[in-house]
Amino acid sequence: MLRKLLWILLISFPLFAILCASFSEENPTDRRVLVLLDDFAIKSSHSLYFKSLESRGFDLDFKLAGDPKLALQRYGQYLYDAAILFCPTVERFGGSIHVASLLDFVDSGHDLIIAADASGSELIRDIAVECGVDFDEDPAAFVIDHTSYAVSETEGDHTLIASDDLIQSEVILGSKKIEAPVLFKGIGHSINPANNLVLKVLSASPAAYSANPNSKLSSPPTLTGSAISLVSVVQARNNARVLISGSLSMFSNWFFRSGVQKAGSTTKYEKCGNEQFLTELSKWVFHERGHLKAVNVRHHKVGEVDEPSIYRIKDDLDYSVEVYEWSGTSWEPYVADDLQVQFYMMSPYVLKTLSTDHKGRYYTSFKVPDVYGVFQFKVEYQRLGYTSLSLSKQIPVRPFRHNEYERFIPAAYPYYGASFSMVMFDIGFRE
């Protein structure tokens, strides 16, 4: 019996260790990442990118995309907290992984990186479509640009794009400016302008278009100009993040180490911006930046410290909350001037911008409106690049009791005077 128990413990311990290493709100970067590859050669050809992740504490598990033992979860628990799909040609995943399971993976709050290519399979395209991105329908299409290409020995190859049209967001790309253009060779995609969950982080120039470079154009290209996105990101409503690139090559060691000179420019950079761009972007995708948490939500009457179970109309109250941002290694105070609280019942009766002490604490005071019912303190905070905050606390508000009204209402003094004058007049008349 003892031997059987020890055997069960030995078998279950590795699984227990895997499940314990999952994503934690208190330590967002302590996570396991599944990396699916078309070929193990990609592990070597893209080693600089993988090493940058491992150096920041990520545990990468490399698997072939067709491995029959693949699984995202076991016994109802996810084994990984993020996935990287560097398998643009895969026609079918192995094991229990498929399009629906990957979408469930994202719907459960996990992050995803997808690298497609001009030879991208329908499987990868289907996943991208579900994330709000449409790749060019032509499987042989490349993004071509005759004005913003990278100068090289092969002057006729204008599919090697040198783009510097980056999203202007420090939270997504970091505070250090990316000086050198980013090299890109692959397929372009479009996003729906009405979809505010998808953002273009690297765009093509107005002169770019998507077509097969080995054949003459028989009809106008479907993707043209700045509408072509080279790299996009998605932040879902559950704060899961997805990176979609039309090029696997841009993650490679060769691109990371390449110098670049943009056509029409006399400036030649010894190193292109790919390494800085993709490293900083991965920090955002894996929640090392732009990840907020709110703690210590408090409210009470002015002059008190305990949270009441009910308020009375016209009470003066204090409200406060602490907001912090994950810096990659620790939680730092988040400082902003646009955080607001609503005192809400069907519609906001009070809307106040919160003041901050620049140490993470936000606070305000206001008077409970002269309306009784069930109210909510609501904080709905959405800002580009940051995880959204949605806080609510329900509290009832009662009217005055019969013995809490003022004995004499100042606004009624004229009526009181009129009543007394009529009484005095009546007394005088009788006399």
Strand order of the largest sheet: 2-1-5-6-16-15-13-10
Residue share in helix: 10-25%
The averaged pLDDT comes out at 86
- The rounded Rg comes to 30 Å
| CATH architecture classification name of the largest domain | 3-Layer(aba) Sandwich
Instruction: Summarize the biggest pleated sheet.
Output: 8 strands, mixed
Our count of domains comes out at: 2
H/I helix tally: 9
Instruction: Estimate the global geometry from the Cα principal axes.
Output: elongated
Proportion in β-strands: 25-35%
Structural class: alpha+beta
CATH class of the largest domain: Alpha Beta
Using the coordinates shown, work out and report the CATH topology of the largest domain: Rossmann fold
Distance between the termini: 111 Å
Low-confidence stretches: 1-23
Main attributes?
eight-stranded mixed beta sheet; 431 residues; Immunoglobulin-like; Rossmann fold; 31% strand; disordered N terminus; alpha+beta; five-stranded antiparallel beta sheet
Structure characterization notes:
This protein has 431 residues and is an alpha+beta fold. It folds into 2 domains: 21-285, Rossmann fold; 292-398, Macroglobulin (MG2) domain (Immunoglobulin-like, Sandwich). Helices cover 21% and strands 31% of the residues. It is built from 9 helices and 28 strands. The chain has helices spanning 2-20, 41-45, 47-54, 99-107, 122-130, 170-173, 253-257, 274-285, 413-430; strands at 32-37, 59-64, 73-74, 77-78, 82-86, 111-115, 133-135, 142-144, 161-163, 165-166, 182-184, 189-191, 198-203, 209-211, 229-235, 241-245, 260-261, 268-269, 292-301, 311-312, 316-326, 331-333, 340-345, 347-353, 355-356, 361-367, 373-381, 389-398. Strands 2-1-5-6-16-15-13-10 form an 8-stranded mixed β-sheet, covered by helices on one side. Strand 23 and strand 24 form a beta hairpin. The protein is elongated, with a radius of gyration of 30 Å. The termini are far apart. Belongs to the DDOST 48 kDa subunit family. This is Dolichyl-diphosphooligosaccharide--protein glycosyltransferase 48 kDa subunit.
